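On clarity, I found the account of how folds are encoded harder to follow than it need be. What matters is that the chain and its backbone geometry are given together, residue for residue. I therefore recommend that a typical entry be quoted early in the introduction. An entry of this sort, consisting of the sequence and the corresponding backbone structure tokens, reads as follows:
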Amino acid sequence: MQTPSDRHEYPAHWEADVVLRDGSTARVRPITVDDAERLVSFYEQVSDESKYYRFFAPYPRLSAKDVHRFTHHDFVDRVGLAATVGGEFIATVRYDRIDARGLPASAPADEAEVAFLVQDAHQGRGVASALLEHVAAVARERGIRRFAAEVLPANNKMIKVFTDAGYTQKRSFEDGVVRLEFDLEPTDRSLAVQRAREQRAEARSVKRLLAPGSVAVIGAGRTPGGVGRSVLDNLRGAGFTGRLYAVNRALEEKDLDGVPAHRSVRDIEEPVDLAVVAVPAEQVLDVVSECGEHGVQGLVVVSAGYAESGVEGRERQRELVRHARTYGMRIIGPNAFGVINTSPEVRLNASLAPEMPRPGRIGLFAQSGAIGIALLSRLHRRGGGVTGVTGVSTFISSGNRADVSGNDVLQYWFDDPDTDVALMYLESIGNPRKFTRLARRTAAAKPLVVVQGARHGGAAPQGHAVRATRLPHATVSALLRQAGVIRVDTITELVDAGLLLARQPLPRGPRVAIVGNSESLGLLTYDACLAEGLRPLPPKDLTTAASAADFHRALSDALADDGCDAVVVTAIPAVGETSTADAALAEALRSSAAAAPAKPVLVVHVELGGLAEALSAAASTAPQAAEAATGGASAAARRFHPVDGAPPAEASADSPADSRLIPAYPAAERAVRALAEAVKYAQWRLDATEPGKVPEYEDIDEKGAAELIDGLLARGEGLTLDGEDTCALLGRYGIDVHRALPAPTPDDAVAAADTIGYPVALKTTAPHLRHRADLGGVRLDLADEEQLRRAYAELTELFGTPTVLRPVVQGMAPRGVDTVVRAVIDPAAGAVLSFGLAGAASELLGDTAHRLIPVTDRDATSLVRSIRTAPLLFGWRGSAPVDTAALEQLMLRVSRLVDDHPEVVAVSLEPVVVAPTGVSVLGATVRLARAPIRDDLGPRTLPVV
């Protein structure tokens, strides 16, 4: 056994669950002295060829000395990690720190030799790549900057692991061995490789749950109506294309209404891909063990009694996830409503939804079962409202989302060819940094619409363990919008926006034509457009006598107008002999819209259920490609039958190939709000093609800043820097703070002014007066000693003793606009840069704009212009415009500081005076804390339970 003097404390934070290439999971953890037997057993299952590649010679078994060496580590200079499944090793990696001669060494040596060994049965699953990410992160944490590896030329798989990782490397060949040396500092390429692997693995893990070849329902009883039996009946009713089994310990019969029945999963002779677990919570762990031993790939746990029920249930939930991951399984749930996949190749309804939704192009994710039911119901109905006939590709209701979350589903939807629009109802976001990253990438390919519950100070559901944010909801919402998320406030708006985006092309601008047979409804629509920031054209009133041909002609004219980007058609019931049949009007609108497929068309109808149904009948939910206008792919390449639950059908001969659904809304405000969201999203897509760059600065001393931070943190955790250290750290990044000297007495104030030079400012730094010039705690333009002493006496007479006021003397800065620049590491949202004007009015009105760090040059430009008081910076009412370019450069430098050094958890520059030429930072505070051990920039890992 190692003694405490032989080793450092066990690094529990290195433990992690990872998703492998095939979608299964493995546990990565440090190797300890207790792993001797596991190591020997693991080595015995490795082929002679793999052993030869590892040791460059025949090596049939490990000696006692080898076992001791490979299990005794100090976790600094000698580290070993293992990937485990079912508690047994499937792969190992170790590094040994070496000096320039290749001999064992300790710090400050910053190079280590690394070697892997993967069981043959698990090669090709991405185990070595995952281990490399984790051992590289460990090495960086221990001060190692470079790995060296010696590999036989024939060991192509291991050479590929190293070369594909994306690190900067050097390769040489000597004495029949390939020597690879590579820096461990992440590069753009290594990060891209890591995230591409993460996406493929996590998408695959979700696909295993949504497209199983066989399903076992555990807890399905004889009597209809129970939870397990309902799921079984729903699977049968949907026409699941794979093998289906009923499992219940109480079953004696071998058949349950035509479904093979067993008392245990172990009794099933064939493989089982997915198990739906519907047994009491106290029995679930035993079921998980049986499923793991049988090789089940994933679980949907509909059983309740977990974190939603309190502290005891939360611990039961943690144990459930840990136990499932031991066997490489992922979980949807517990307390889940279930999953649905409408693909005709699968037809999976492993949920409590009694009816299978129609096939379509919309993906749904809901953390709440009740909201999931509401979404499915709205999208399932046809006619009588805004929904019409609309189909679903996949549906996931995650319940407590203890394992599979919205992030995993986004990974799956990103390249799912059957999903064109993603709708999500979220009650909490477990890893917001990752969510915004994935949302940005997803939104660049397909619309992502999100409504968030519990957003106004309400607690997250008990079943959800999440980090609390200190940012107001409006700020979080703005940050999500920057990532391309279409943020809406209600389920109704979620469906409204989703249907428009699924049915129509994106508008190319905010110009809206309005045509209809009601002047009043047209004016309401016009006003709604103005309220939403759109640019409506004067409404065209066709009068109530308008025929279908009149609507066709008016819509065609509007769509042909180059000054129009979208059209809203308003319609009210017509009376008398001239009334137009709903079907005829719908056909007129569809045929007109089909002739101009590049522009979206919406209908506002009043009590026209028949028109809504006719508009949506027998057409596709696929979004129209922008290139359709120039002869691109058919806008209606996919269709589905309007009958409930019917599979997709080929287009009939009399259906025009370019017909498309036209969404209908019962109120102008709803239609226009959905259109406004589409306009903003289209603009975001356009902007995302040129996202800007994070600039490089030659005068930034990143290494010097890191050394200074390390030295300061050696004093203790949670450190707020004093003025001198603040100026020193900011100076490393080219941020100059105007010198302020303490003035505890009038004589000290005069001496400080003599040092700085007149004119000067005298101001208090007491917390209750700091940055509150409106309260009179600042005296400016003091030209000489007499004025300075008089100002000092006034301040102390008005506000208290110098001990309370903490006065300082500072040189005068050029006149300009006072602003505030801040950066903070929010526990939920991540690193955020904020900007606003200084003063109580801006603070009271919440006139502050935010961007996610790292900020690009385009982000900085838009940030300055995002606040409502921005005109004050650009010459409002004849004032001189100020140097916003210098302000943007300052913000970019602050962003770089926080992004380069995660130990910098807060920066506040207040005030920053922006003059016609240049900026002056008059006050600054910086707070440091130890960097988190793992973040979204670290190695791939599943959330800790």
Remarks:
- The longest strand covers residues 88-98.
- Residues 737 and 921 are 5 Å apart (CA to CA).
- Confidence is low (pLDDT under 50) at residues 1-6, 382-388, 576-580, 618-659.
- DSSP finds 27 helices and 39 strands in the chain.
